[in-house]
Task: inverse folding
């Protein structure tokens, strides 16, 4: 089975993270969800009494103690905090659960809390959830990406909850002199029904902490029918803090004597500072210092630029506006979209530079087909546009025992950001600490964390003062790791019954030529994997790839690869069913019923990353399509002027079928009235959170239909929300989100609900107008979203 | 630079500000009221929305000196003695936030809307709620505003 470490889907930095954390199981292990043979539990008496249950990889007992949480100034060392804990129960009955992964808006802090509380049999109102410390030695991989938090941690967290529960039961059994087997639990209470005795978890916590912890392999986890919490709706655990404006995010960090920094880089990636008006800048009000940062000339670390350090944000922003830099652009990007577009149209006429997959005989299949359809699809660059602009607070501290680095970051891979920044400023890896802050939007942007290294470098060069690096919105949009644009040439054949018999495709994408880049295909540019649907569902199939050199960073963007592959494949599938004069749902179901026998190699974990479910399953695909058809009334008459479009996509172990209901006015303004979304992601942890993700995916998908970052002479053109538009309230449709709640292993939902939305809407636009959208953004074809 | 007195959440605060310093950065950097967020600096996204005498404004685009003599209310000033407003409660009941970064601004806009219109229509909500939510929580924001309206009307009658 493939290791996640090998997945092309992930940027190198993520793969390094996986490689570092020994405990990351293979996909096969995930699918069967076994107990790690290295798993162990460790109990200790918590500060102030009570039970602290650690559960994790061997070696955690040697890990350096850290303070929990983040965002607070580094004060004097507090009482020792046992790291690695997932569960803490205080004598007063207060239960604290620790969420190991970054909260980026995917709701993991609530989800992880629900999983732990379920097996602990805790009363939800007794529970507080906190961000755990960042410590790879204790927690293994801690990151938010690939919709992987749930599949990678589901079993571990259940065991942690069940282990704590078992110890509380054992403590009660000892105190009461009854067999543990006669004891039950409910609502944070241990119960011996036969003798009518009850004890709250808090009253047993200190005694439980003295007992030997159970072997995780011997714990019995709850049957699904006995779940009391999982599958219900929970409001987010940080919601009270959010609606009252409490400091949670990276931008909210305040340290004593902290300064605010801004950093100006060349607008065309790769440019170096030739000169700058530093003397003038240093004289401006509130400016503490201004200097050239040489950087490492690596886009994932620190590119060259000018840093301004000021007393406050406004002084820094104001000075940045007056900064004049002359750039040496001899090595800078000169890429332009129009030049690539012209080249791609030429490439599309040929077979493609490199063959990625070949099954059967495509030429014969096309020749023998009753009908062939050919199309050229294009999609532009887009930005992540996290609403919290990139920022980091870093404090490089001189220390005779070895210099230290302390970081407060809104990041998706905290340990990766920490170790990279430490390397960049020459601090030993074990002398650098990361405090994970709540993240004001991830979407993949914060898997790439150069802004953390920048903050560390500026703190060091400024003389070892705590510095909050603030990117302006223009910095953020102008220096993104963009979802790459791309091009696809497609040709397919249908037999006399209108069945798909041959499919030929050429993906025209980019090779990463950024400073320090991989020289391989950019993330999300080409096909998610050579096994992408319909590779295994067509007797004759060919896929080739042509790459153009590109010098601007591209990176993972929510459902990388899949967010465009779904648009192309599912729109083209609709072109085929239309050409065949067939019902689209029936055509899709027929295609999924046509899984080809070997020798087609396994598609591996499927496009868009691994998870816990074993790849695209045609039965699950068909079930979601049928349910979406039924719930939406697809194929039945609609009110005048309303039209349906249907699409399916599998990614991140999630099977999603979606139906769009739209109307289009005479000015080509598209109104999306309703989206019906049916997903199979296994059992649901927090239904409210899952529905929220689906609703968000739909709005995000609608946003992307009119967004574009134009690249001209190496310079991304759009810099703020005046020219790069996000969907607003009036454009959000009604969303009917439904989950099949199967017994397959659970997976995340932040990504897989996204990809089918755009083709479903485009297919509905075709139904309404007979105009086929083959270009994103749709504004290039004169359409807009009402 | 000028020393000015700002009335924030019912308390007079004396601060030294630059003439062109937006209210947003005085709130965040000088008064450490970081609930009000920076998103774009152009008044486009609304993450920085606060009330001036009850009216919603984009604090990134209002110089602090222009707010002298007005009642400034921020997200931190909505709840009184720890009692959440109907809007804040509705936001929790509907589990509105995803990342949550825009939500302070959304709540300030929604609160101002409900102070103006007891029963906002969908069109009223579309017009008043021009704040961006990158996570796309609009469906829930709409539902929460309607719930809050109901709660407010119920308690008034």
Result:
């Amino acid at each position: 089975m493939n290791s996640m470490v090998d997945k092309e889907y992930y940027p190198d930095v993520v793969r390094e993270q996986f490689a570092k954390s020994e405990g990351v199981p293979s996909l096969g292990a995930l699918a069967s969800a076994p107990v790690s043979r290295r798993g162990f539990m460790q109990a200790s008496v918590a500060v102030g009494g009570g039970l602290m249950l650690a559960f994790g990889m061997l070696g955690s007992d040697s890990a350096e103690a850290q303070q929990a949480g983040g965002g607070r100034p580094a004060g004097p060392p507090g009482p020792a905090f046992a790291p690695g804990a997932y569960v803490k129960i205080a004598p007063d009955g207060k239960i604290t659960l620790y969420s190991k992964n970054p909260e980026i808006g995917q709701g993991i802090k609530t989800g992880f809390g629900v999983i732990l509380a379920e097996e602990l049999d805790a009363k939800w109102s007794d529970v507080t959830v906190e961000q755990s410390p960042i410590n790879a030695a204790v927690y293994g991989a801690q990151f938010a990406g690939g919709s992987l938090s749930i599949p990678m941690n589901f079993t571990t967290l259940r065991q942690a909850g069940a282990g704590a529960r078992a110890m509380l039961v054992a403590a009660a059994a000892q105190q009461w002199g009854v067999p543990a087997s006669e004891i039950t639990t409910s609502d944070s209470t241990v119960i011996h029904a036969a003798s009518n005795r009850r004890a709250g978890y808090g009253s047993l916590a200190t005694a439980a902490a003295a007992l030997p912890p159970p072997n995780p392999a011997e714990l019995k986890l709850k049957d699904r029918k006995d779940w009391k919490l999982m599958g219900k709706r929970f409001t987010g655990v940080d919601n009270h803090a959010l609606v009252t404006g409490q400091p949670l995010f990276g931008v909210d960090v305040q340290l004593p004597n902290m300064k605010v920094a801004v950093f100006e880089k060349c607008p065309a990636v790769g440019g170096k500072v030739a000169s700058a008006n530093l003397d003038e800048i240093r004289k401006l009000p509130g400016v503490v210092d201004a200097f050239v940062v040489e950087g490492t000339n690596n886009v994932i670390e620190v590119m060259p630029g000018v840093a301004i350090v000021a007393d406050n944000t406004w002084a820094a922003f104001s000075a940045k506006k007056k900064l004049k830099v002359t750039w040496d652009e001899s090595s800078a990007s000169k890429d332009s979209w129009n030049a690539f577009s012209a080249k791609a149209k030429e490439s599309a006429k040929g077979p493609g530079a490199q063959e990625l997959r070949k099954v059967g005989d495509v030429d014969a299949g096309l020749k023998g087909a009753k009908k062939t359809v050919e199309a050229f699809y294009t999609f532009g660059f887009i930005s992540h546009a996290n609403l919290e602009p990139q920022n980091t607070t870093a404090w490089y501290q001189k220390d005779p025992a070895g210099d230290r680095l302390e970081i407060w970051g809104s990041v998706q891979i905290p340990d990766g950001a920490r170790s990279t920044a430490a390397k960049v400023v020459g601090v030993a890896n074990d002398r650098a600490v990361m405090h994970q802050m709540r993240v004001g939007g991830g979407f993949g942007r914060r898997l790439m964390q150069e802004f953390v290294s920048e903050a560390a470098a500026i703190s060091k060069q400024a003389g070892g003062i705590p510095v909050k690096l603030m990117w302006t919105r223009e910095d953020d949009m102008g220096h993104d790791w963009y979802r790459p644009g791309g091009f696809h040439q497609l040709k397919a054949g249908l037999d006399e019954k209108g069945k798909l018999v041959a499919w030929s495709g050429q993906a025209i994408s980019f090779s990463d030529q950024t400073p320090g880049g991989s020289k391989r295909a950019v993330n999300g540019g080409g096909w998610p994997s050579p096994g992408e649907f319909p590779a295994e569902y067509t007797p004759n199939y060919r896929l080739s790839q042509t790459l153009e050199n590109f010098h601007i960073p591209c990176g993972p963007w929510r459902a990388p690869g899949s967010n465009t592959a779904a648009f192309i494949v599912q729109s083209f599938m609709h072109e085929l069913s239309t050409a065949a004069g067939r019902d689209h749902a029936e055509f899709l179901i027929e295609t999924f019923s046509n899984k080809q026998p070997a020798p087609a190699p396994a598609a591996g974990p499927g496009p868009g990353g691994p998870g816990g479910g074993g790849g695209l399953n045609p039965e699950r695909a068909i079930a979601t399509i049928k349910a979406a058809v039924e719930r939406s009334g697809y194929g039945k008459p609609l009110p005048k002027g309303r039209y349906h479009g249907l699409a399916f996509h599998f990614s991140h172990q999630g099977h999603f079928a979606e139906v769009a209901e739209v109307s289009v006015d005479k000015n080509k303004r598209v109104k999306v009235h309703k989206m019906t979304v049916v997903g199979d992601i296994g059992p649901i942890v927090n239904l409210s959170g899952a529905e929220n993700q689906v609703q968000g995916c739909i709005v995000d998908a609608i946003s992307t239909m009119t967004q574009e970052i134009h690249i001209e002479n190496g310079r991304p053109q759009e810099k703020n929300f005046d020219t790069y538009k996000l969907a607003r309230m009036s454009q959000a449709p009604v969303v009917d989100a439904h989950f099949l709640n199967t017994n397959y292993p659970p997976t995340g939902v932040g990504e897989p609900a996204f990809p089918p939305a755009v083709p479903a809407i485009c297919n509905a636009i075709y139904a309404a107008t007979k105009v086929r959208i083959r270009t994103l953004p749709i504004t290039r074809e004169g359409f807009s979203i009402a | 630079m000028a020393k000015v007195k700002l009335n924030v959440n019912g308390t007079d605060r004396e601060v030294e500000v630059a003439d062109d310093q937006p209210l947003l950065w005085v709130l965040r950097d000088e008064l450490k009221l970081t609930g009000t967020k920076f998103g774009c600096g152009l008044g486009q996204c609304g993450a920085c929305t606060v009330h001036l005498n009850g009216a919603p404004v984009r604090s990134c685009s209002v110089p602090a000196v222009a707010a002298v003599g007005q009642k400034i209310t921020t997200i931190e000033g909505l709840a009184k003695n720890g009692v959440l407003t109907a809007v804040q409660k509705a936001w929790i009941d509907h589990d509105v936030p995803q990342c949550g970064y825009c939500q302070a601004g959304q709540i300030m806009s929604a609160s101002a809307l409900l102070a103006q219109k007891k029963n906002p229509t969908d069109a009223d909500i579309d017009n008043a709620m021009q704040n961006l939510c990158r996570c796309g929580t609009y469906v829930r924001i709409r539902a929460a505003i309607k719930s809050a309206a109901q709660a407010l009307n119920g308690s008034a009658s």
Chain A touches chain B through 68 residues (CB under 8 Å).
